[in-house]
């Protein structure tokens, strides 16, 4: 099972096993990590699961959809490496992925 490391706004790091086919958001929510609020439950409509994906990991995920891009345009703290974790589906290649949770969530 791929291991995803979540760097929380307080600087702490949590390495979580996330099953293939689930999202980075799912892994955080199911592990009760703070920071990824996921108000919409993963339907790409709220941007409360905003994360920054390490440059080495960005190519492991599908391209951003127009819907995700539009939500991130209005998200506090958005930058070039921003993604919505509900749109980041974990595959076997994702073992070792690191994401930093935005302090602006919630």
Q: Which key terms come to mind for this protein?
A:
106 residues, alpha+beta, Ubiquitin-like (UB roll), five-stranded mixed beta sheet, 2 helices
Helical residues, percent: 10-25%
CATH class: Alpha Beta
What number is the mean pLDDT? 95
Q: What number of structural domains do the residues give?
A: 1
Give the oligomeric state of the chains in this entry, treating copies of one chain as homo and distinct chains as hetero: single chain
CATH architecture call: Roll
Q: Biggest β-sheet, characterized?
A: 5 strands, mixed
Shape annotation? globular
Rg over CA atoms, rounded to whole Å, is 12 Å
Task: Write a short abstract of this structure.
By secondary structure, this protein is α+β, with helices and mostly antiparallel strands. The chain is built from two helices and five strands. A five-stranded mixed beta sheet has the order 2-1-5-3-4.
What does this protein structure show overall?
With 106 residues, this protein is an alpha+beta fold. The protein has a single domain, classed as Beta-grasp domain (Ubiquitin-like (UB roll), Roll), CATH 3.10.20.30. It is 14% helix and 21% strand. The protein has two helices and five strands. The protein has helices at residues 24-30, 66-73, and strands spanning 3-7, 13-17, 50-53, 82-84, 97-101. Strands 2-1-5-3-4 form a five-stranded mixed sheet. A hairpin with a 5-residue loop joins strand 1 and strand 2. It starts with a strand and ends in a 5-residue tail after the last strand.
């Amino acid at each position: 099972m791929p291991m995803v490391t979540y760097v929380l706004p307080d600087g702490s790091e949590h390495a979580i096993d996330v099953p293939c086919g689930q999202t980075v958001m799912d892994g955080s929510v199911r592990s009760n990590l703070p920071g990824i609020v996921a108000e919409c439950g993963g339907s790409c409509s709220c941007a409360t699961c905003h994360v920054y994906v390490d440059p080495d990991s960005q190519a492991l995920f599908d391209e951003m959809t127009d819907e995700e891009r539009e939500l991130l345009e209005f998200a506090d703290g958005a930058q070039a490496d921003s993604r919505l974790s509900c749109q980041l589906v974990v595959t076997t290649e994702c073992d070792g992925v690191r994401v930093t949770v935005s302090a602006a969530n919630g």
